[in-house]
Amino acid sequence: MTISTTTPVPVIPPYATMLGFTRYVSRTGPAKATFVGGLRRQRERRSGFNPHGQLVKALKADIAFRTGGSYLGGVVDVVKDRWKPLYEALRAGARTYLASLGDPERVDLAQTRDAIATVGPLAVKINPHFGLRYADGRREAVRLHFDEEPPSAEAATAMLHLMARHMDQILPNAEPVLVDLRRGVAHRIDAAARPADVESWLAGEAAAFTAMWAATAAPAA
């Protein structure tokens, strides 16, 4: 008697970082499914590389040590040649943002924590880059946007809402801020937006994301 065995396909639950999910909501039509399939393959391979790490460290160092951009000034020289054009493109905007924070003596870094959000059926990792604490008591949880194009209205709305939703875990009593680093522009929550409407929209997007994630796992006939 022949006994046939099959190797079970590992179940990879749907999951996205805040960056991945907000990039997804910015897409339309078939591009959404293609994007989700790419995210799933990255998850299966456990691949991914962050080319911006040194820039974030330099910006945080200039804030922490009140050095007015000197770390940002030198960071291009310490990265590999392939990343130098990227860093040169980001540096001017990063300096503009740094200057927009005002008197360096009146702002400090604040520790943030990541959070896992449940958006409909989807788990989303909420991970700001750093927090700020001002001398007047204000706090901000900051997420940086590095892309060539400015953040879409959908991406900004989703990211700011998700951070605000979990601010008790991230940095209590802080305001979420999305910084378009190439242009040095800070985006904040639209006071006219209705949180319930945003929540309903995100839940629908998350449900569609989850369905596409499952579809990409279906075995070929």
What does this protein structure show overall?
The protein is an alpha/beta fold and 221 residues long. It has one domain. Helix content is 45%, strand content 17%. It has eight helices and eight strands, in the order βαααααβββββααββα. The strands form two sheets. A five-stranded mixed sheet has the order 2-5-6-7-8, with helices on both faces. A three-stranded mixed sheet has the order 1-4-3. Helix 3 packs parallel to helix 5. The longest helix has 22 residues. It is globular.
Task: Estimate the global geometry from the Cα principal axes.
Answer: globular
What is the beta-strand fraction?
15-25%
Helix content: 40-55%
Put simply, the count of helices is: 8
Determine the structural class based on helices, strands and strand pairing: alpha/beta
Number of strands: 8
Strand order of the largest sheet: 2-5-6-7-8
Major sheet characteristics: 5 strands, mixed
Order of helices and strands: EHHHHHEEEEEHHEEH
What is the domain total for the residues?
A: 1
What is the typical, i.e. mean, pLDDT? Answer: 91
Q: What is the alpha-carbon Rg in Å?
A: 20 Å
Q: In angstroms, what separates the terminal alpha carbons?
A: 27 Å
